Amino acid sequence: MTPSFLRRSLLVATVCGVSAAVLSPLSAQAATTTLRGNVTYRERMALPPSVVEVRLLDISLADAKAPVLARTSLRATRQVPIPFTLKFNRALLKAGHSYALEATIFVEGRPWFITTTQNPVRAGNTSNITLVLSRTSASATASPIGTWKAERLGDAPVTESGKAPTVSIEEDGTVSGFSGCNRVRSKATLEGATITFGPMMTTRMACLPQAMATEQLFLKNMEATRGWHLAPTGDVLALVDAQDKPTVVFRRQPDAASEGASNKATPASGNPATDTQPAQITPTPR
């Protein structure tokens, strides 16, 4: 093998290696499509601090719920129009299918503005999209604000209705209620369709083993919560984790005050708790 042949071989290998290194990122970029546009509304009103969520839907099946292919959320730092950028993998698109965009503006976790008309995504128009939203009633039934009683903890139903955990979520994010054994309080942070809870602070009463097990699972699942879904009827609230799996499923309660505040904890001896001293609130051990 001659030196000149070796030099030519090395040159070809080097050129091929550079081409692969350059084409790979270009191919990855080509597989991603970016949609750019603005979200606005016609009402003459100032927008308070809010979160804007834009979603790409497959609207091909008329009688089925349109699946969400991609979504993006952003905190609004200005008045409308609010610019958005939505990136998605073009491999998700299927030949012969139709696609559209929808958007929601959330204020304190409530949908204040939503798209009410179809906004189809057309080839060649990926950077000049305007989504015009309409005002909703922004009622309490469209948010997790309210008083709720747990019916399921993850996949497990709450079997003792009298010992079911309850929570009240206030407008300012204050959370109070009953954990299945003790009184509990925390702080919720709402941003659009996401919700997280701070440390769950509880009283320190001893309860029967089943109540203690319910409490531990409830507190663990609450701290794992990252989002929420509300039934169309507004009476069932599902908290979900980062993988969108249910952590706690609640049913709305008519009373504004948490039912947990009136529950009496039962110590391991089986006798009702009679301590009348103010309850000591401590962080739940992690």
UniProtKB/TrEMBL annotation:
Transmembrane segments: none annotated. Pfam families: META, YscW. InterPro entries: DUF306_Meta_HslJ, HslJ-like_sf, Lipoprotein_YbaY-like, Pilotin, TAT_signal. The keyword Transcription does not apply. It comes from the Bacteria. PROSITE patterns: TAT. This is DUF306 domain-containing protein.
